[in-house]
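All the exercises in this workshop are built on plain-text protein records. The record below serves as our worked example for the rest of this section.
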Amino acid sequence: EQKSHLTTINRSARSLLHLLNDILDSAKLDKGKLDLDYRDFLIREELDLVISTFWLEAKRKKVGLVLNVDDSVANGYRGVPERMRQVLNNLIGNAVKFTHEGEVTINVKSDDKFVYFDVSDTGIGMTQEQVERVFDPFSQADASMSRKYGGTGLGTTISKQLVELMGGNIFARSEKGKGTTFTFRLPLKVVEIDEHISSDTTSKATRIETTLNVLVVDDVQQNLELLSLLLKRAGHNVDTATDGLIALDKMQSQSYDVVLMDLQMPKLDGLEAAKQRREFEKENSLPPTPIVALTASVLVQDKHAAQQAGMEGFANKPVDFAQLMEEVARVLNIDTNVIDNAKENPVIGTSEPSLKVDKNVLDLKKAVDLWGSEEAILQEVDKFSSTCRDKIDELMGAAIREDYKAVATLSHGLKGTSGNLCLTTFYHTTREIEAQALKSIVNIEEINCLRDALERIELMLSESPLYAENAINESIDNALLLSHLEAMLDSVEQNMVDEEELTFLREVGCSSHKEQITQILLDIDDFEFELAHERISTLIKELK
């Protein structure tokens, strides 16, 4: 019972924190203290990230969520993508909240001066009087709406302040009972950005004809497995180490043509390992072993630190194997050939994936090009998802403590692995969390978005035909599930949460009722006890 109360307190505290963040943002905007960080960005990538945030909630409510991007919209712009997303999050969040049937539609178009965003819904709508004060602070249509739907009444106020701070404007139009449309425009400058996501990345590769002896050093097992797979496929010999200390021992006992070294590792990181290796070589008059830094960071200072540590090369994660091989060839000063992987290896780049998977969850074609088969990538994603919830909890704990260094380190690790697994939304979210943590900023809502992204990954796995046999093997006895659901029903009738029953439902695995159970868990997480009660009752009837 105490655990149940503490869990309720924790969830309520998260809601309060969201309210306080809104109030602080509004206060900063009022005083002109909010700084804008202008940078180049890919607008479709940012839009996908926003849509992914609300996908589960819209699906839970059986409300359509549609994004239309006009051909007039360029790929790259210069602006403040974080604040643009904040405005869209506020507007789309309200649209989904106040819509019970129909759909929420986001239309984006542009002209020579502005990019225009329309967020339309078929929800409850507003009167003209309500529209006129919709941007006033702490304003909702009436007090009963606040009680029924929750919220601070600050979302639209902050959106207006942000849009105007970025040089744009915003307005609303609505009809009671028919829906609402918010329109805003931003003066975004078109820029050219190297997207690094060409479909030819893995089908065209750099071939090093010489067979190399390669040591790969990384503390994440899946990163080691992917690099080993790619290097062996290219005809090279591979050895691995999980931290800098093991790598140093191996370099002393064996000879390698090149070492691929992750920078952030426990016990001894890549920078310190490289420094110690260079000192050992100098003391023993040994030729330097070429070391290429591997990191998910794109910061200039990290490249400089790698050079200072004695590393000769630098390659980014997620892995772009063609670019990695080009960097290795440059460091070793050896010739390369450009080869067509689709011809050399029929597994790669020859056909569309047979599974239908939401690209915002998993870029399956890109993943298969990397990992070799749909079965292989799904197995790796399954391994990742099985350990991910604990890591997100750890990340949340660090965020609540405002331990920015720990947040950056944890999100950095998740970013590298999810990028190599081509988990689109999860990767982009961790990238954003890390970028903010490096500026001593933490956003609890972004971490909650990670939980949503993980739920979508788990749902994708449960629906995969390749896991159908596992689903049968893992399915639990209906009578046992029924008893737990009946106990949960008693709890939600009293607006209470039984943590033991919640734990059981989360661990059900890929049962035939996985999607229904996922929806029940989401309802309880959102304190939607009436909806949870309705879904539990329906499932109990099915089981009986």
